[in-house]
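Notebook, student rotation project (T.W.).
Task set for the rotation: take a protein with a known small-molecule partner, predict the structure of the complex, and write up what can be learned from the model alone. Partner molecule chosen: pyridoxal-5'-phosphate. Sequence and SMILES entered below by T.W., checked by me.
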Amino acid sequence: MLLITKQIQQAMEGGSWIRRMFDAGIQLKKEFGEDAVCDFSLGNPDLPPPPAVADGLRAMADHAGEPFSFGYMPNAGFDWARNKLADYLSKEQGVTLQGSDVVLGCGAAGALNAFFHSVLEPGDQVFSFRPYFVEYNSYVANHGGVFSTLPSKPETFRLDPEALAAAITPKTRALIINSPNNPTGVIYTKEELAAIIAVLDDASKRNGRPIYLIADEPYRFLAFDGATVPSVLPMYDYSVVVSSFSKNLSLPGERVGYIALSPRMEGREVLVAAITMSTRTLGFVNPPVVGQHLMAAALGTQVDAGIYERRRDLMADVLRRAGYEFQMPAGAFYFFPKAPGGDDIRFVSEKLQAQRILAVPGTGFGGPGHFRLAFCVQEEVIARSYEGFKRALDS
Ligand SMILES: Cc1ncc(COP(=O)(O)O)c(C=O)c1O
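Predicted structure of the complex:
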């Protein structure tokens, strides 16, 4: 008796690496105590939200007893919140955006689902470069699309326009990129983006319908060593930016995110209306009330990125001294080192776990031979992990 579909069963099996590590972590912590485990498995921001978030919440509480404080609202979010976000994004992205170019949603995840629901015909293809944020697979399959991955440039994890050009078909509908990248920490340059956009532009004309470029940017605020993250919105007619306040305001549980459309896109009102309707019919209905108030109160502030940068430097020092090969992350809060011996699943689930270090095998991100370490943990945990990393390598 099949209680669930084959599709969801496959998704549950395929996407379970982070979950498995999470469960292993609970077990290890129970057995040996919290302080004996170094848990780098989850990208759950541990820094407190900036003070403006708590101030916004207190100000909101003063009005919480009024009628409709928590009522239904337009499905794209409050008009005042969309306008405020559009002003902010205009500066951030270097384009002029109106409130009507922005749809608020339930996190970047909700916004991506509403977008794919609006643009995918059955069997339409969506590409991403490997390694990639594993949930994309489900976000596309949820709406009848086919998710396929492309090789990035060997060793460097950079975008490969030739691989994209060779893979595009008349069914191709979108390419999703993520910069700064989870799990590699790579930030794409303007030149790389221009090369990818040239391919998408040509193919859109050939296919007679747009191939969208989706820039997923929840880590935009976290670019180290003064690096900047170029915007795609001024570069391509069919570009959209998706993001949220999960990481820069440490608000992942409050589920507030958005999608912003390039002002170069002609006729975008139809797409905005479709995403807005999808937000409703998918059952998100509208972005959270509280989240929008917090966003409005805290826009322009962020968690202390310097703390993440110090952790990155400390982690790099630990890994280097222990003898690991890795590329220094330019942004986001992950390392993606090579798995000694090449078998990432074995290295993570046997060697590292034996040292009570939790990581995620690169296989879970379409990047076998590597493993992911999330450094949103206290510096003390990173420093303490050195001996374990060294022993895992030597064993
Ligand atoms: C690359 C990437 N995209 C999207 C998301 C989804 O974030 P949220 O839905 O919390 O905004 C995450 C969360 O970890 C992520 O790492």
